[in-house]
Amino acid sequence: MRIGVAKEIKADEYRVALTPAGARELVQHGHEVLIERDAGVGSAFPDNAYEAAGARIGDVGEVWGEAELLLKVKEPIEAEYERLREGLVLFTYLHIAADEPLTRALVESGITAVAYETVETDGGALPLLAPMSEIAGRLAAQAGAYFLEKPLGGRGLLLGGVPGVAPGRVLIIGGGIVGYNAAVIALGLGASVTILDRSIDRMRHLEEVFSGRLSLVMSSSLQIEESVQEADVVIGAVLIPGARAPKLVTREMVKAMKDGSVLADVAIDQGGCTETSRPTTHSDPVYTVDGVTHYCVANMPGAVPITSTNALTNATLPYVEAIADNGLREAVARDRALARGVNVLDGRVTYEAVAEAHNLDYSPLDDVLPLSAV
What we know:
By secondary structure, this protein is an alpha/beta fold. The chain contains 13 helices and 15 strands. It folds into two domains: 2-119 and 305-371, 3-Layer(aba) Sandwich (Rossmann fold), CATH 3.40.50; 130-303, Rossmann fold, CATH 3.40.50.
């Protein structure tokens, strides 16, 4: 199979979808790998590293036009819509439940769109979202500590405190992978940490992992309302796979927060879990609403591309190999986790949460795939 790797053109995105090591594995499997010129530079992988691994370097037209399977990191932006075409399998983070224009562009193009973030095992694990969730959670805690500094508009509080001065309070809404990793960093900085979650089993697990070093509280709208008022940093870490994030923090709750506190919404790529959240970039990462600094960068792991690109390829490569070696139909037939990643196929939406988000018809994958020429 001919596998293309596109250069990311989204603002402040430095990751690339495949490392040279990953390219070499695919070449050794007998596949042709075509890398867009300078695609890996932001992750410290020059073109000659890919060429040494057996890949070919091409321009944007060649990569999008010749590839049978196209790998990206982020969803196509508007300038790339015209390159979407029937017969191409796109494998990337999509988050289209929060992006109706992209959803419609994918449907109208006839492309097959497979989303990293909805590849889900029978046990509910999200193996391709997990590594970026780990990184985003850690970055959110770092960002919270940084933007608390007074010259940056924060309260002027050292998150970890010092002997004789109480540490800052970090509230994490959601105890999944993002929340866990945010807690690891916040605790490491010396903060007082509380996690709100709705799963007693998950809280029992976190209690064992953290050995009582943080507070674990059942989440409810009243509990969130009370907790955000006391927090210096609030980290939104909620996730409904493939669907829009629920708005758990209202505008009134934000208004009641401490002046100069920080809200980091990691759920922003799924629409955000706060009513006052809107996407920002690494170049312009924050804005203020009612005295609260909002950090809502939609591609947080893009800030650390060397780490992120390696972690991403580690997770995605087995699935890329499965599609390349067997074709999409056979690959999804063998692996139901990968099948759940198919969001759009043959002009139809095959992921129910996406269809619901945009009031589009939902077509179960099993009904569509046998009719597809992919």
